[in-house]
Structure prediction request, 424 residues.
Amino acid sequence: MPRAWICFPGAPYTQHAAQTGAQAVLRDWDIEVPSTPPSDADATPTDYNAYIADYDLLPFDAILSKGALCSSYMIRKALIRKHYLAQSLHAFGVKRNISTDVAPRSWALDIQFADELDELLADDLYDVRDALTANEECSSEDERTWFILKPGMADQGNGIRLFSSLERLQEIFEEMEGDASDDEDDDAVYASQLRHFVIQHYISTPLLLAPSSGGMRKFHLRAYVTCVGGLQVYLHNDMLALFAPVAYTPPTEEGDLHGHLSNTCLGEKQAAEQGIPVLPSVFLFRDLVDTPISAPGASEAKLTQAHMDAIRLGAVNAIGTTFEAVAREASVHWQMWPNAFEIFGVDLMVSCDASLSPDSMRVWLLEINAQPDFKQSGAKLEGTIQHVFERAIQLGVLQEEGWPAGESRDGVTCCFADEIVKHP
Prediction:
């Protein structure tokens, strides 16, 4: 009887979903959950046929030599580090002379000190410099081209800044250097410690929804994507909608970022600091049909099933294009073992024009997260996460036969399928 080992210490929500999902589909397997988790990968037993576990506990050397199945790729930083992801998409499009505008236009920069910025703006970031210079002629902030700065390896929204002027960009890096002397600021991102950043075009026409009281709010979609071997890419159709904690307002140089960032950790922190109730921020996206929608400069309408269908198709395209680009252009930094599979959390943004028509819906891929924080889904959506694990285990452990891109089976849509890495 084949044996599976399941262990996510410190993440009881994930442990329960993975264990329940495995028990539902691995009926002829012996499933073991250790009563005392190992301290590290060296202490993990190596005699199992499949490992569904925390990345740090996977015995990759034994897995590689014995061909056991495992729930993570050993190397996949090309997916999860923003600067690698931006570079892969750019290279993929340039080499093939095709459009890869499934993500906001991005510029990767390597900077340690603020005084290095002038040289970067003159060389690698001249497009950004020209746009910021042109902004000086705009009569209002609404007319400006806005950009967003993201640290390449930070998470939970830390270090993100908006800017529309050269002066503000310079100030941001000077502030980061100043923060380095303040050890008490847990959210500070120090330019002297993080060299890699990404500048992206800010999506200025986001689709806005009003899922509850609090007005029209910005949101992003959290899609769970299972990759198998080398390479099949599957979208779990039930996406989550994660909302900003306050109503959306157009960006300003001195404005509050809370209306622009839809990370749940930021909303909880703001509510705690201000002593205010936390607005509901996580919803199953398909439950939001008939919710009021709008966009900057648009009137109000209702979210219809036609909108939902258009957005899902856009998500399939954005995810398929992105994962293919990284697989083909960054094989050193994403090594696709044929016996590996992994669930990624993919963050997507939806934009539209003032018509709010389904045809105007456009889906952008923002980032890819390894070992996503499933517990943000909450108890209400635990069944959804369990189904994610069930289907991932069917695809990655039971090796369910794949199907063509664009088709859906049992709540999962294939976004990409090609034998980029051939089985021995």
In short: The longest strand covers residues 217-228. The chain is about 30% helix and 20% strand. The longest helix spans residues 305-329.
